Amino acid sequence: MPIQVYENKTFLLNTEKTSYVFKIDKNGILNHLYWGRKIDEIKDFEDSEIHRENSYHACIDKTMEECSSFGMMRYKETSIKLRYSDGVGDFRYQVTGYEVNNNCLLVTLKDIFYPFQVTLFYEVFEKENIIKRYRKAENLGESDIVLERFYSAEYGIPGTSYELINFNGTWGAEFKRYSDKINAGKKVYESLRGSTAHVANPCFMIHKDAEEDRGEVYYGALEYSGNFKIVAEATPYEYLNVLIGVSDTDFSWVLKSGDCFETPAVYCGYSGSGFAEMSHTMHRFCLEELAPKAFAEKPLRVLYNSWYATLFDVRFEEQVKLAKKAAGIGAELFVIDDGWFGNRNSDFSSLGDWYVSKVKFPEGLNPLIEEVNKLNMGFGIWIEPEMVNEDSNLYREHPDWVYQYPNRTILKGRNQYALNLTKEEVVQFMIQFIDVLLTEYKIDYIKWDMNRPVGETSVCGETPEERKEVWVKHTRNFYRVINECRKRHPEVEFEACASGGGRVDLGAMRYFDEYWPSDNVDALDRLEIQESYSYIYPAKYMRAWITDTPDGLTNRKIPVTFAMRSAMCGSLGIGNNLNTISNQEAEEIKKQVAVYKKIRNIVQFGKLYRLKSLTKDEFHAVQYQKDGSGIVFSFLINGRYGKEHYNLKFKGLCNESNYRISANETVYEKSGAYLMYHGLDIVLKGDYDSQMIEIIKDR
After folding, report:
1. Mean pLDDT score across all residues of the chain
2. Residues 6+ apart with CB under 8 A from 564
3. Could you tell me if 539 and 568 are in contact, meaning their C-beta atoms sit under 8 angstroms apart?
4. Burial class (CB in 10 A: 0-12, 13-18, 19+), 470
5. Given a cut of 80, is residue 504 above it in pLDDT?
6. Which of 43, 181, 221, 407 is most buried, by CB atoms within 10 Å?
7. pLDDT at 56
8. What is d(CA 544, CA 538) in angstroms, rounded to the nearest whole number?
9. The domains spanning 302-605 and 611-697 adopt the same CATH topology
10. If residue 394 lies in a helix (H) or strand (E), which one and from where to where?
11. Domain extents for the chain?
């Protein structure tokens, strides 16, 4: 049974490998007891609650809690902060009931005096080793209640000297992995930009010296694409308190009589075998449970995007030429990027005017789409629905549709304004124009971009409290728009892009089929970005391109084969200017595209193993393994004379089975045990050398 309850006070949640336990303690508090390797016997926890008494400090602060409220002499970060109509600001609850429905547990907490109730939801994915958590607050009375903080979940982890891993960065340099030791005080990761953003990611990994294949890791990821906050606090009482949810900065939510507020969900798990097991669990769960069903089991196509070839100068004749060349190298999807609409010739104009440019496409898009389809490619297009330029018909007609302060010049980011998604007319406009576009034209793919953060929101609402609801309403209405578009056009593939990796999260995964992890497509930089990305998010969801060299951001010259193999570590895309590359480069791209098509099922759906990392090793290597077949990519950056031979130990093989290994036109026959424990000696010679190794299990 995934959920057991003992004497109506102890709750045991079991997956195949893990247990999560809490109980109602003698003071009526939900006391967290255990999270770790599986323990089947619930009676073992009968006397497990811990009370640390002290003459000065309130004992409630010393308790690991499932749901802590500000006040009651708590001084740690808490997961709930509210205000009743008379000014009282704590939530003193009693557990009034619980309900078990198969793999779901609901625990109800009600204030001992005020008509306010919180329901804690736990959903156990037993085979997947994941527990879903979220909360709902309800006003059962007549007077308004204001939520000032309402996180999705709280986790107590006993012990000291833990490390918190998250991903920091900026545009073009996303997913810089940091592991911060927390001996005292708090560590906070947060986005306040109206989206996930580049500066952090809504996930956490807690560990003590864990490695790829050993050590304990506690982890979770938030299903949300807006302002979020993660707090890890090392308390003085020898436990780490971890909280995750909607950011409480500039947030409040007014619960009127009968209203409720539901948090986004957190998907959490425990690995007793290091980061690899964590990643395998999350990747499998994402693809099986969260990804939209229309494309969840289909390998993503190789796409060509014409942006770097034409920039804003998107014209019919030139696009047809590029489409023919894209088909010639093996592309399956042809995408035109920014510049096809309105009077769009730069980023100063026409966002919001989502009609096809009559200058660039006098007969509309259909002639181009027909040419692309004749070449056996699908057709895709770029949009940025949440934004508008000042120089646009939309803004001239509806200047009140953007976020703005009175008595202030509206701030621009990338020469554009952010549309106010809390306005119903804006939501309907977005749904309508996308629906018309996808109905009028045979479009197979949408690249949905967002190139500036949201700001100047706090005048949207009648009261100061309601004005702080904007951030959540914005995100919820973004979901409304994309959800409605997918309902109306389930056959269309959607990519989430936000100035690169600004919308990589489980909330976006519910509605999109892939992410754009970064606008930085330098093949070397991408290896580090892709490695960090892989800790939580699956390779299938990672669009990875090759583009012209030297790269526009790094000015780094990288050989085509190295760049292609870097991009083949995810869902492959091509962005080169096919009009200017050499015949030799075009032939190599064509060759590698053909190789990728043969291996993409393994890359996109297989188990990913991080074998070597440029952050600590002499070379980089990543393995993908599925149904006895595998692919290993290895990359050397700086070659040195006399240092050409490297040992590479594979993972995920069967000790007793034999495997045929193909590397650089040489074939080896080795046992799984040999390949994993002795390893294969490979040769990498010279700067930017790379190698692809195929693994085939003998039947």
Report:
1. 96
2. 546, 588, 589, 592, 596
3. no
4. buried
5. yes
6. 221
7. 53
8. 13
9. no
10. helix 393-397
11. 302-605, 611-697
Rounded to whole angstroms, the Cα distance separating 615 from 306 reads: 33
Local structure of 615: helix, strand or coil: coil
Rg (CA), the chain: 27
Which is the catalytic residue, given 449, 522, 525, 551?
Answer: 449
Average pLDDT over residues 459-478: 92
In the numeric block, the tokens 């927390």 are attached to 182
CB 201 within 8 A of CB 167: yes
Q: How many CA atoms lie within 13 A of 314 on its CB side?
A: 28
Is it the case that residue 54 has pLDDT exceeding 70? Answer: no
Q: In terms of DSSP H, where are the helices of 468-511? A: 470-488, 506-509
DSSP of 41-67: -GGGGTT-------SSS-GGGGS-BSS
By the 10 Å C-beta count (0-12 exposed, 13-18 middle, 19+ buried), 348 is classed as middle
Q: Is 522 a catalytic residue?
A: no
What are the pLDDT digits (tens) for 205-228? 999 999 999 999 999 999 999 999
- In whole angstroms, give the CA distance from residue 632 to residue 257: 59
> What phi and psi values does residue 122 have, to the nearest 5 degrees?
-130, 120
Residue 687 among the catalytic residues: no
Beta strand 445-448 pairing with 378-383: parallel
Q: How many C-alpha atoms does 641 have within 13 Å on its Cβ side?
A: 0
**Distance (Å, rounded) from C-alpha 682 to C-alpha 86?**
72
Per the CATH hierarchy, to which homologous superfamily does domain 302-605 belong? Aldolase class I (3.20.20.70)
Structure tokens at 426: 């804006």
What φ, ψ does residue 537 adopt, rounded to 5°?
-105, 140
pLDDT tens-digit series, residues 85-108: 999 999 999 999 999 999 999 999
Write out pLDDT tens, residues 66-87: 999 999 889 999 999 999 999 9
Report d(CA 58, CA 63) in Å as an integer: 10
Q: Which CATH superfamily includes the segment(s) 611-697?
A: Golgi alpha-mannosidase II (2.60.40.1180)
**pLDDT of amino acid 60:** 83
The candidate with the shortest Cα–Cα distance to 131, out of 6, 2, 44, is: 2
Which of these is catalytic: 519, 525, 548, 689?
519
Q: Which residue has the tokens 């060759």?
A: 591
pLDDT of residue 53: 54
Helices (H), 121-213: none
Which pTM value belongs to this model?
A: 0.96
DSSP-derived secondary structure for 252-312: -EEE-TT-EEEPPPEEEEEESBHHHHHHHHHHHHIIIIIS-HHHHTSPPPPEEE-HHHHTT
Residue keyed to tokens 């290091």: 274
Tokens 């920091």, located at residue = 168
Determine contact, residues 364/332, Cβ cutoff 8 Å: no
Distance CA 513, CA 296 (A): 7
